[in-house]
Amino acid sequence: MTEPEKASKRDLLWDGCVNVRDLGGHPTEDGHETRFGAVVRADSVRGLSDEGWEALAAYGVGRIVDLRWQAELEEDPPRELSIDVVHVPLLGERNEATASEIDALLSGIQDPAARRSTMYVEFLRRYPGNFASAIAAVGQAPEGAVVIHCAGGVDRTGLVSALLLSLAGVAPKHIAADYAASEANWAEGTAVWIAEAETDHEREFRRFLSRMPPEAMLQTLETLEREHGGAAAYLRDAGAMPEDLGAVRARLRG
Question: Which residues fall within 8 angstroms of residue 109, CB to CB, at 6 or more apart?
Answer without folding.
Answer: 115, 118
